[in-house]
Amino acid sequence: SGVLGSFGLGMGGAVAENPTRVIMLTEVVSPQELQEDNEYEEIKEDMRDECGKYGTLTNLVIPRPRPGENVPGVGKVFVEYTDIAGSSKAKASLHGRKFGGNTVVATFYPEDKFACGEFGG
Amino acid sequence: GAGEGGKKRKSRWQDEPKPAALLLSQIQLPDFIKELTGGVDVNPEVQALNLKLLEINRRLQSGQLDDDRPFEARSPSPEPVYDNMGIRINTREFRMREKLTRERQEVIAQLIKKNPNYKPPPDYKPPKLYK
Q1: What is the CA radius of gyration of chain B?
Q2: Nearest by CB to B13, which of A6, A56, A99?
Q3: Where would I find the H helices in chain A?
Q4: Do B30 and A7 touch (CB under 8 A)?
């Protein structure tokens, strides 16, 4: 029974990481790409389509650079799901995938920070 | 959600890995199970049987033969049986060892049934046909 118990815990894989409903994708886009309106919309669409495969999205935030301002979170993509099942599946599936030639790094992001619009880190 | 239209453009996302590879990579087994099965057998029933077998082996080897059920859930102890020297034969440990050994035989028999290629441990004896 002891072995079966620990087996159940191990299945999640990311037990130590504290799953949240929000995932952060880094190493995805460069500030230059985000400046172009067309390109920005395309990136957003690609993200929405792909991330929507793993669960129901409630929010998608791609911070955009503004001239003369230091916008936190530029180059990152934040995706919020209705549940942890969705975000966990997305994280597992997207981590290591390539987006426009960049290898994506996916991590969980604190829900409270996301809710406050804090994208600094 | 979905259905944003305009599907002519190619997504920046590179194609997903093949479904089979994806599935296998998403199933995370404890390392000792991978060693046991060579990382190929992902049938949950077989996994459960393997786990059960491991647990039984561990208990038999470590001599951890105490009954982990709460006292009131246990069945009444049988009448004591003594040998010629007056030492009790059917002690709690003795009975637990017998029970675990019996369970072990059953689990291995089931594993063989599920997978004819399964190699039983060398000390496994197939059940006798009479009962």
Answers
A1: 24
A2: A99
A3: 2-10, 31-35, 37-51, 84-94, 111-115
A4: yes
Q: Which residue of A has its CA nearest to B9?
A: A42
Q: Are strands A22-26 and A105-109 parallel, antiparallel or unpaired?
A: antiparallel
**CATH (one of 3.60.21.10, 3.30.70.330, 2.60.120.380, 3.30.70.1620) for A17-115:** 3.30.70.330
ipTM of the complex: 0.77
pLDDT tens sequence across B28-48: 656 665 555 555 556 788 888
Backbone angle region of A109, left / alpha / beta, with phi > 0 → left and psi within -120 to 50 → alpha: beta
Is the pLDDT score of B119 beyond 90? no
- Structural domain boundaries of chain A? 17-115
Question: What contacts A25, CB < 8 A, 6 or more positions away?
Answer: A47, A76, A77, A78, A79, A94, A99, A104, A105, A106
> How confident is the model over B3-10, as a mean pLDDT?
61
Determine contact, residues A75/A102, Cβ cutoff 8 Å: no
pLDDT score recorded for residue A24:
96
Per-residue tokens: B4: 């944003």
Q: Show residues of chain A in contact with B55, CB under 8 Å.
A: 1-4
Mutation choice for B interface testing from A4, A6, A7, A80 by most B CBs within 10 A: A7
Place of tokens 């000390």: B123
